[in-house]
Design a protein that fits this description.
The protein has 23 helices and 30 strands. Strands 7, 8, 9, 10, 11, 12, 13, 14, 15, 16 and 17 form an eleven-stranded mixed sheet that branches. A seven-stranded mixed sheet has the order 27-28-24-23-22-29-30, with helices on both faces.
């Protein structure tokens, strides 16, 4: 074969053995073949290695002891981006082969290997980027087998250059020489390129006319320093960027993007620069520097020099480091200290990836565009992570993590799990592997649905998964559920509806390989319950294949339905009315900050049960408390009120007189079989008394957090008494509240529980599809066993 490379080895006098080795996992596009080639040379072995749809296939021959040592070194010394899931070895007949060869990729049967995620520029490439003597000096697209774009430029497996968007760039002689040399760091680095043969970058105005510049990146820096908004094309899409120290530029970006309150992410040169802006723990510093380079939520430093408009009203800053060479080139001059780098879209639309698309969609936002001609095949936003209880937790799983698989504890047939309506992430599953999509956003408009379908087609094609079943949320009104039903009907596929909070808890259990039972605390904003009401403050007794509702926060009305999410004072009115307070009293009307006439209308809606759905949501309870404690009448983005309520308590002790904010667990009539209710009337009485007495808002928030935790700890303890289950799984969007998550875990462990938390998938709706896949796999396994028993 033309792609074969051989190296002669010496045959010694010891008896020879030959072994076939199949390595599965993320072993393509990570330098695995040259790594194996070097190992074979060092051990003096003959044989071959090639990529195929299973992963990599190796045949190795030599003395038995050296062959065994070679196999042991595969996992012990693998390249940094590789992930080995299995190594299968079989005996072959020795042939006397004395050379080791790297052979061409083969496409044989169904894909069962993985594509690596996009990886940040490695230290070796960075040294070259800023070395004036290197032929790639300041080249915005340098990479090697240890770094660079992968998923976002790949059409299908096997991961080879013809299958990527680099296929149109013919390598020059120097690059081809590196690509063909097994001893080179760029051996079979598929995006390999240089100034002579690779992608190029240029700058244009908002009218699409090129801006003449010998150094387009330098010209971009100048525009940013002058306060302009620049759309910068990256690896997974465009960013909208401004100088993070320029408050006027930040506010102009917010106005044009229609993103008025939600915090903006900030990119800085390196971890030393991040330390100047944030109070970083060692775990946060390590997370910032992983090859995934997620946005990490950190504590802001006072006087850090970042414009107030970047993250208003909260003590945190989402900070991340450059992960592409072009981004590194924005900082070296010291001209810019920190850049806002936010998704290039209007609010709730998919991120722009194509040059023409960017001009059309972003012409009203950006003053200029820094473009390049390497096609992005998959939109992929930045991932968001935080450190919870001294361990990383993903809040948004996207670039740097997708499409790495997450394992199931049980085999699944080929299936599509749709996820939810908000923060949608779908998943394809087969066997023990679940491939989640990147974060797609809210499925509320045709543009996002097109993004959904485009991403589904890409992942199905990439991993050659043809679903036999479609799993969706129980909510009958979700666009994702309607689409799933139509799609399944067209293809004659089986359908399965999974309750929202069961999927949350099952996902946490599956992440930890738990096939038994757990007490699940499913704490979020919205989820359709089996009784047709809106759940969200749930204590469930769960198995992967089913659940029982043990307890829940008491139901309160949401006057105006969805309007109560956008106007938290409505939730406060509903909660106070449910707790039997006179919401029309002068004191409470003033506290709610609403006209008395509006209060009367909403109370009448509740009394007549008109557009006032009932909810047990913890997220809505946070909204209600924030409305009266922070006077937060309306919100600019989802969960703003709850985030700000958490934020003001950041300097208070985790547990502060929590007994003052107690809740009651009401069991109803003995033997009724109905779920217990966590009543919050006493908590509301304590909150109002503290407000009237002038207790600082930060202290009320701390007490409220502690009181909520004690209510759910009490419910979990009662569930343990009845079930003998000692494992608690924590899930749901409210677990993004680090104070709540930290305190829940600490108190549960004090009570002797084993506590499971999400680590690989989001605790919010971004993790739903993984949980749905786990439930479907367990139900099908149970059905199969029942069929075999009969």
């Amino acid at each position: 074969m033309a792609d074969e490379i051989g190296a002669r080895q010496t045959v010694n006098e010891f008896p020879l053995v030959r072994r076939g080795v199949v390595v599965r996992g993320v072993v393509q596009g990570v330098g695995f073949r040259p790594f194996v080639y070097r190992l074979a040379q060092e051990e003096g072995l003959g044989g071959s290695i090639g990529n195929d749809t299973d992963g990599v296939t190796i045949e190795v021959e030599g003395p038995e002891e050296r062959v065994a040592h070679f196999i042991a070194r595969l996992s012990a010394e693998m390249p940094p981006l590789a992930r080995i899931e299995s190594i299968v070895v079989r005996e072959l007949e020795a042939s006397g082969e004395v050379g080791f060869r790297i052979i061409a990729s083969e496409v044989l049967g169904r894909v069962s290997t993985g594509i690596p995620a996009d990886a940040a520029t490695c230290a070796d490439c960075l040294r070259e980027l800023f070395n004036p003597a290197d032929r790639r000096y300041l080249y915005p697209f340098l990479n090697c087998t240890n770094c660079g774009p992968r998923y976002t430029i790949t059409r299908r497996i096997p991961y080879d250059r013809p299958q990527t968007s680099m296929a149109r760039f013919t390598m020059c002689a120097a690059c081809q020489g590196e690509y063909d040399d097994p001893g080179n760091r760029r051996f079979h680095a598929q995006p390999n390129a240089c100034w002579e043969c690779g992608p190029r970058v240029w700058l244009v105005g908002r009218d699409g006319i090129a801006i003449e510049a010998s150094d387009p990146v330098g010209a971009c820096r100048d525009k940013l320093a002058a306060g302009e908004i620049v759309a910068i094309k990256g690896i997974g899409g465009f960013h909208l960027s401004v100088d993070a120290a320029n408050d006027a530029a930040v506010m102009r970006l917010r106005a044009r993007k229609h993103r008025y309150g939600k915090p903006l992410a900030v990119m800085v040169k390196d971890v030393e620069a991040a330390r100047e802006l944030c109070v970083l723990t060692p775990v946060e510093e390590a997370l910032l520097q992983t090859s995934a380079r997620p946005i990490v939520l950190t504590r802001k430093k006072d006087g850090g020099g970042i414009a107030e408009g970047v993250a208003p009203g909260v003590p945190w800053l989402g900070v991340f480091l450059p992960y592409a060479p072009l981004q590194h080139l924005l900082f070296p001059s010291g001209q810019l200290r920190a850049l806002v780098m936010t998704s290039a879209n209007l609010s709730e639309e998919p991120i722009a990836i194509d040059n023409d698309e960017a001009l059309a969609r972003l012409g009203g936002i950006a003053d200029a565009f820094l473009m390049h001609d390497r096609e992005i095949l998959q939109r992929c936003d930045d991932s968001v992570a935080a450190v919870v209880d001294s361990a990383p937790q993903l809040m948004r799983r996207a670039r740097g993590y997708v499409p790495l698989s997450v394992e199931l504890p049980i085999d699944a047939p080929p299936l599509l799990a749709m996820g939810g309506h908000l923060k949608n992430v779908f998943a394809l599953a087969r066997g023990r592997r679940v491939y989640q999509s990147q974060h797609l956003g809210d499925l509320e408009n045709p543009t996002t649905m097109e993004f959904f379908k485009e991403s589904l087609d890409h992942l199905m094609r990439t991993f050659e998964i043809e679903p036999q079943m479609v799993v969706h949320d129980l909510h009958p009104g979700y666009l994702s559920s309607e689409w799933a039903k139509d799609w399944a009907r067209e293809r004659g596929l089986a359908l399965l509806a999974v309750q929202h909070h069961h999927a949350h808890v099952a996902g946490c259990m599956a992440e930890h390989g738990l096939m038994g039972a757990a007490i699940g605390l499913a704490l979020d904003g919205t989820g359709y319950g089996t009784d047709g009401k809106i759940w969200g403050g749930e204590v469930l007794v769960c198995r992967l294949d089913g659940f029982q509702r043990f307890a829940h926060l008491e139901y309160v009305p949401m006057p105006g339905g969805d309007a109560a999410v956008k106007e938290p004072w409505r939730m406060a009115l509903g909660a106070l009315h449910a707790a039997e307070f006179d919401v029309e009293s002068e004191q409470l009307v003033k506290l709610l900050g609403a006209p008395a006439s509006d209060v009367r209308v909403l109370k009448r809606m509740i009394s007549r049960e008109i557009n006032a759905p009932m909810t047990s949501s913890l997220g809505r309870l946070f909204d209600a408390v924030a409305a009266v404690v922070l006077n937060r009448r309306t919100v600019d983005y989802e969960a703003q009120a709850a985030i700000e309520l958490e934020g003001i308590a950041v300097d208070e002790p985790d547990r502060f007189e929590q007994g003052n904010y107690s809740s009651e667990l009401y069991r109803g009539e003995e033997g009724s079989g109905s779920a217990a209710v966590i009543r919050t009337g006493k908590m509301w009485k304590a909150i109002l008394e503290d407000l009237w007495r002038g207790v600082p808002a930060r202290r009320i928030s701390a007490r409220f957090h502690a009181g909520v935790v004690e209510g759910f700890i009490n419910a979990a303890a009662n569930a343990r008494i009845e079930t003998d289950i000692n494992i608690v799984a924590l899930s749901g969007g409210c677990l993004a509240n680090r104070r709540l998550a930290r305190l829940l875990r600490a108190r549960l462990e004090e009570e002797g529980f084993t506590v499971l938390q999400h680590r690989q998938v989001s605790p919010g709706d971004g993790g739903l599809s993984y949980g749905q896949a786990a439930v479907a796999a367990a139900l099908l396994h149970k059905s199969k066993l029942a069929g075999e028993a009969n």
